[in-house]
Amino acid sequence: MTAQITIGHDASGKPVQFDIEELLATRLLVQGNSGSGKSHLLRRLLEESARMVQQVVIDPEGDFVTLAEPFGHIVIDGAAYSPAEIEALARRIREHRASVVLALEGLEVEQQIRCAAQFLTAMFDAPREHWFPALVVVDEAQMFAPAVAGEIAEDTRRMTLSAMTNLMCRGRKRGLAGIVATQRLAKLAKNVAAEASNFLMGRTFLDIDMVRAADLLGMERRQAERIRELERGHFLALGPAITRLPVAVKIGPVQSGLKARAEGLMAMPQTAPADMEALLTRDLASEVAKAPPPGPPPAPRWEEVEADIAHAEERQVEAPRAAPDTSAVAQQIEAIIVAMAGEEGVSFQSASAQYQTFLSRCRRERIIGPMPDMGTFRRRFAMAGAGLDLVDEETRERIMKLAHAVEDDLLAPFLVLAKTASAGEADVDEDALARAYGTSSTGRIRRLLDHLERQGLIVVREDFGGGRSVLVPGLEASATPAE
């Protein structure tokens, strides 16, 4: 089997060959502005060498998942696995020599970077007996090896720089040949770019990128203007795996991927203005109604609460007093607490405001008898909000026994998790969890789960896509909140 592939043709029509065996030892850097044809070039290289060597693609935009059907690549959705599972997958990929595409488009940018860094590090740390040759393609490499600190956390930046540096600097001995593609050479860390010996430079317009590209190609700086004039799909190539002298190459066609869309202008729709307006405004109110509410309603002002209490006290003085029925009073109190727990916005009030509202309603109903103190009220309010009255007595006792050590302000969300886990439901209602905690912030929910886990009250399994599986020790089932 020959190790030569054809990536395209030069200006005279002569095929431009690529030596895959040499590439494994010398690595490749691809640069070009958006629309210059970088993804097309990478796809051509991957398709032509798919039957020769194992391939691993770090794909932040989902451009290369179409390699799966014609060439047998395994698509791994990074959002569907936890960090530990991603590392285990990387080790198995090296062991079994599987060609894969790590698709990261379902993740936020920082999550993409952390997922790719852990994946690459696990591949790099594979046992020596699994050091088989493999091409490792990293598209949009400026994200994973930034030249300067950006908006990502410092620990994330260090992690990804370490992974990319290991791939490009030390990966050869482990059989890993790095192929990095970037839109901007100036944004790519120099120690990563400097390790490549083969270059394919596409169209770029910024002076700093043209000068760096010309330096890498061994061209004089006055010749850098040539890079600006390159057409789409045309690259300047240089390197031991391609050619010893710079040559312009037009990349050949590919088999997979979406068909290129027609460029240029499109005819505007001929819809009449009235019909277009109808298309834009039809059922607009119903669509807005389906959207989630903007946030919790504001808590009542303290002056309103005081006035409500005062009027209730006046009505209570005018009402005739009767001998209290203890059981009836307890039922009335419980009914008020249950009604409050089911009302929209009450859970977003402070504990003191909730308790004052409770006392005010008790006076309004002319309830005479011992009232629960604030601590007792908060626990009963949390139980009502979590719907523990809907579970059997044995389960309720088990849940409350587990909740004995939970702080009062965390009791309501804990009971929501415990009830769902005990019922064996697949998903936890995030809205119910947020409502129980009195917040509309997903960040506060995340910190709540972290705190409960540190207390040993729950066990959280989180994957890169943001989904969490919550297990309550002492209860059999687990719950998965969907974010």
UniProtKB/TrEMBL annotation:
A matching Pfam family: DUF87
Protein name stated in the entry: ATP-binding protein
One MF annotation (Gene Ontology) recorded for this entry: ATP binding
Residue span, AAA+ ATPase domain: 24-214
Entry superkingdom: Bacteria
Keyword entries, A-Z: ATP-binding, Nucleotide-binding
SUPFAM superfamilies linked to this entry: P-loop containing nucleoside triphosphate hydrolases (SSF52540)
The keyword Methyltransferase is assigned to this record: no
Keyword 4Fe-4S among UniProt keywords: no
Species whose genome carries this gene: Qipengyuania soli
